[in-house]
Amino acid sequence: MPTFDLSVTPLRDFNSALHSVAEGDNDTAFEVVNPRGAHALAVGIDKSLSVDVRGSVGYYCAGMNDGGAVTVHGSAGPGVAENMMAGSVTIEGDASQYAGATGRGGLLVIKGNAASRCGISMKGIDIVVHGSIGHMSAFMAQSGNLVVLGDAGDALGDSLYEARLFVRGSVKSLGADCIEKEMRPEHLEILAGLLAKAGADARPEEFRRYGSARKLYNFNIDNADAY
What we know:
The chain is mostly beta strands. It is 10% helix and 25% strand. It has 2 helices and 11 strands. The protein has helices at residues 11-19, 185-197, and strands at residues 3-5, 29-33, 50-54, 66-72, 86-91, 107-110, 123-129, 143-148, 164-167, 178-181, 208-212. The relative contact order is 0.09.
C-alpha cells in the first residue's frame, strides 16, 4: 500500500497519484499520514480506489468522488463529499457544515456529529449520521436518504422536494413544506439496509420519517394574492 506523508509530500502530488492509477494497476489502496487539516484532499477520484487518511482534514475532502472508498480517521471540515456521485466516504469523527452537499450518489457515513446544512440540495446521495445534525439540514434536498441517529436542529428539510429523512432523536423544528410522514414497510426496509451498510447500531422502528408536503412547488390559485 503506497503511503503518503503530507508533512513532506505536497498535497498536489498525492492527488495526482490518485488520478494516475490506470485500469488493471495493482496499487489501488492508499494511506495518508500527517494530513494536518489539508484542504481538498482526495478530490475527484474516478476509479475503485481506497484511501485511508490517518488524521483530520480541512474543507472539501473527497469532493466529486465517483467510485472511491475514502475513510478519514479523524474529523472533516466543511463540504466533505460534496457532489459525490458514487462510492463511499466515512468520517470517523465529526463533520463541519454542508457535509454531502449536492451529492448525486454513493454513501456518506459520519460516525460523530454533523454541523449545519448537512445534505443540502441532495440529489440521490445516502447520508448516515451516527450523532446529531445542525440547523437547515437537507435544505432543498431533492432525492436520496438522510439518516440521523441523534437529534436534528432547526428547520429540518426546509423547501424539501422528494428526499427521505429519518431521525431517531428529537427535531427542534421543521422547515417550510417538511412534514412528518407514515413509516411504511418499504421505508423500514430502506432504512434497515442503510443502517447495516453504515454499521449503525439501531433499529428502523426507532426512527420517524419526514418528507415533503409537496405544496411549495405547486402554484395554488387560492394563494394568488400572496404572490
